Amino acid sequence: MRSGKIVNVYSRFIGVKYHKPHRPYLLSSIVRRLRVVSLQAVEMATVWSEKMLQLLRKMNNFHSPGSCRARCLRFMVADQQVGWILPQMAAILRNFPDVFDPPNDGALSLSSRLDTHSKRSEEVDRVLQSLRRSDALTCLKGWRDERYDVMARYCDAPLMSMERSATSLFGVRRYGVHINGFCRSADGGLRMWLARRSATKQTYAGRLDNLAAGGLAAGMGIGDTALKECEEEACIPAAIAVKARSVTTVSYTYEEEEGIFPESQFVFDLELPADFQPRVGDGEVQEFYFLPLDKVKEMLVGGDFKPNCAMVVLDFLIRHSCIEPDTEPYYQEFVTGLHQTL
Question: Which of 11, 192, 251, 252 has the largest count of CB atoms under 10 Å?
Fold first, then answer.
């Protein structure tokens, strides 16, 4: 395209009628306008990056300077550290000396007389039921009647099991399974299925979520949990759900007023047929959305996502090169923030 035609096109863009004698003025106006547009685009990208980084820092605030970590007691079971306990929780547990030994050398231990999985689980449950009746702890008002395994590492044999709503009181690691549902368009572009949580959910009601997700209950396998959540939450037949591929884990640790939340999510990608549409199943989801990845990325920092689900989506965007190190200044910080260990 000749320079006169270029100027003519861009003069319409900036709203000025083109006359040949005005070419130098128009060229400088075009350069200024393009510079403004470029700066605006950079500013918008920087705002997105900063907001994403803030979310990751919040979800890893136990690792931050000034966190409660220095004041916490190590929670020990059978001489293995399985969690962290806040000082105020340790003070409450002093009322149960037959179950918990007095704090010693920065640690609080389950009594050594509880030497089997069943003894530990039953005695700790007795303590928790007592605390639940007293209404002393807010988190126990959300009692689930769902138990989580307690162990130092996922590959270890469980030392005991514990009521899900109480795990943060002892800072024991919680595991979950999240499934990214996506489709490829004819031109190779990706679109993602997102779920909106039910308005009656105990936590993060009405927030955006992954296609399907759930906690890893005691005794359940990771793959079985993925199939179960796909069927229950999104009515995905087993013949399709079984094609989900395990791709990574997302791990983080954050603190809140009543406890510590070390969590690891096993992440699956499930490429769905173009004509498949998930349906609301067990009532934990109210509706589904099918969105292009650019829109999904934009929504990540809008405050509408359940935070750990936003992290799972961020990981998907990185793995599928929607976020790249040449253009994202916090690329390394993002990757690190998605894979923190305790």
Answer: 252
Residue type, 231: E
For Cα atoms 142, 193, 325, give the angle at the middle one, nearest 5 degrees: 100
Q: What is the DSSP string of 101-131?
A: PPPBTTEEEB-TT--SHHHHHHHHHHHHHHH
Would strands 208-209 and 190-197 be described as parallel, antiparallel, or unpaired? antiparallel
CA distance 290 to 180: 12
Helices (H), ranges, 160-319 = 167-170, 222-234, 238-241, 293-300, 307-319
> Facing residues of 305 across strands?
208
Q: Are 75 and 268 in contact (CB under 8 A)?
A: no
Sheet containing strand 107-109, strands side by side: 80-85, 73-77, 107-109
Among 120, 124, 141, 122, CA closest to 132: 141
To which H or E segment does residue 254 belong?
strand 245-256
The Cα 101–Cα 93 span in angstroms is 9
Per-residue pLDDT tens over the stretch 290-302: 999 999 999 999 9
pLDDT digits (tens, 9 = 90+) for 88-111: 999 999 999 999 999 999 999 999
Which amino acid, residue 284? E
For residues 179 and 268, is the Cβ–Cβ distance under 8 A?
yes
Query: What is the predicted pLDDT for the residue at 133?
Result: 96
DSSP three-state, residue 312:
helix
Q: State which amino acid sits at residue 39.
A: L
Distance CA 198, CA 163 (A): 22
The Cα–Cα gap between 248 and 236 comes to: 21
